[in-house]
């Protein structure tokens, strides 16, 4: 029997919580106390749904009890069925003193008792996450939800919100697996919810997941793609890092709050290397490079070798849980680093060709293969001049 890992918040959850507490402590603290429950929710449910009581639906209540016990939750669970022939779905309506699970569409007719436990476990896992550490993660959830609803919110917060809610779905899927104790059952329940089918093949779905390259991250907005969720469960059991679904490559065009920190550090480190490169070492270049510090200031002497940007980059962890897998860089991020190099290479007019040749050499050491073309496009070299500069950079005697 496969051992299921202990259920903990994802590394992404822990890292974002640490970052938010550091930069938005007051807002986080204000949102941390338990909110007053919606006084009209109970009446709305009684008026517009069918309450699924234990006497008429014992299998459902047994599945809920089983899930709550597996997750270590001691809470009253109520179940309701929405009216109408909607899409199969289940959702948690969070209340401070009880858990309310609302079913939609014909889902209950299609689930076995074990699949019911998985679906209940998924929803109750949301409650578990929101009650851990006295509501610490619920406060982040509220803060990011509020930010996502404000048109003035910076894009970094919006991307953090997108990744956060997907991380919460992966956590909830793990709660489903913990509740029913079987991967195939969990994936089968996931498929029935997503497709509305009564009969599905979870093993075939896992094989389908294996045909995808998921290292580029999920493109979902609130939930990772179902096939990615199945892949994440299978690999979580195997002890693999699955949070690449949330992060993907390091992309300067779509950073979240954590990636924004990483990109600032990466820019600062690379600028320091440029400023210390023979042929570019001058007060003017150092002054320009100092602008990449946070806050701006002298960068000092960089440590270690120039990083290679044409292979996955080992990046220092930011705020909390380390990122165990090196991050590849998107084409846009490599282009940004090329522009950083070119800006510093042309900052000091006195550097002349020596500075340009030094920058070409540094680009080769860093694996920034687009640099030659970018510099040519921006500076308008003739074919002859480009060939001369490239030959000098490569140490070719003409």
Automatic annotation (TrEMBL):
Keywords, sorted A to Z: Hydrolase, Metal-binding, Metalloprotease, Protease, Zinc
Obligatory cofactor(s): Zn(2+)
Cofactor descriptive note: Binds 1 zinc ion per subunit.
Protein's organism: Kribbella orskensis
Pfam families assigned: Peptidase_M48
InterPro entries for this protein: Peptidase_M48
Entry superkingdom: Bacteria
Claim: Metal-binding is one of the keywords in the record: yes
Family: Belongs to the peptidase M48 family.
Name by which UniProt lists this protein: Peptidase M48-like protein
Domain named Peptidase M48: residues: 59-236
């Amino acid at each position: 029997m496969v051992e299921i890992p202990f259920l903990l918040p994802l590394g992404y959850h822990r890292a974002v919580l640490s970052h938010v507490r550091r930069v938005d402590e007051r807002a986080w603290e204000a949102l941390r106390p338990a909110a007053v429950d919606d006084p009209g929710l109970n009446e709305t449910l009684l008026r517009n749904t069918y309450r699924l009581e234990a006497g008429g639906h014992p299998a459902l209540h047994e599945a809920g009890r089983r899930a709550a016990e597996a997750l270590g939750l001691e809470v009253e669970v109520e179940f309701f069925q929405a009216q109408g022939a909607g899409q199969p779905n289940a959702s948690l309506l969070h209340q401070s003193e009880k858990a309310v699970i609302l079913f939609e569409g014909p889902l209950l007719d299609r689930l076995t008792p074990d699949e019911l436990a998985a679906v209940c476990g998924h929803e109750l896992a949301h409650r578990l996450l929101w009650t851990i550490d006295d509501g610490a993660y619920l406060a982040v959830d509220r803060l990011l939800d509020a930010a996502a609803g404000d048109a003035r919110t910076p894009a970094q917060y919006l991307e953090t919100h997108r990744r956060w809610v997907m991380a919460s779905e992966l956590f909830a899927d793990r709660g489903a697996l913990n509740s029913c104790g079987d991967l195939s059952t969990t994936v089968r329940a996931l498929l029935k919810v997503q497709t509305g089918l009564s009969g599905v093949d979870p093993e075939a779905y896992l094989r389908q997941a294996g045909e995808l390259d998921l290292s580029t991250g999920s493109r979902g907005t609130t939930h990772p793609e179902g096939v990615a969720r199945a892949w994440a469960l299978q690999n979580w059991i195997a002890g693999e890092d699955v949070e690449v679904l949330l992060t993907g490559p390091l992309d300067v065009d779509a950073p979240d709050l954590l990636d924004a920190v990483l990109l600032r550090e990466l820019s600062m480190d690379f600028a320091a290397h440029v400023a210390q490169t023979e042929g570019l070492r001058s007060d003017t270049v150092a002054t320009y490079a100092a602008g990449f510090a946070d806050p701006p200031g002298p960068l000092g002497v960089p440590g270690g070798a120039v990083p290679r940007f044409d292979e996955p980059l080992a990046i220092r962890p930011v705020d909390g849980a380390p990122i165990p897998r090196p991050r590849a860089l998107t084409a846009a991020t490599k282009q940004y680093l090329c522009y950083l190099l070119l800006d510093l290479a042309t900052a000091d007019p006195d550097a002349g060709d020596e500075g340009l040749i030094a920058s070409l050499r540094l680009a080769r050491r860093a694996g920034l293969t687009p640099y030659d073309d970018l510099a040519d496009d921006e500076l308008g070299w003739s074919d002859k001049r480009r060939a001369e500069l490239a030959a000098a950079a490569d140490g070719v005697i003409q």
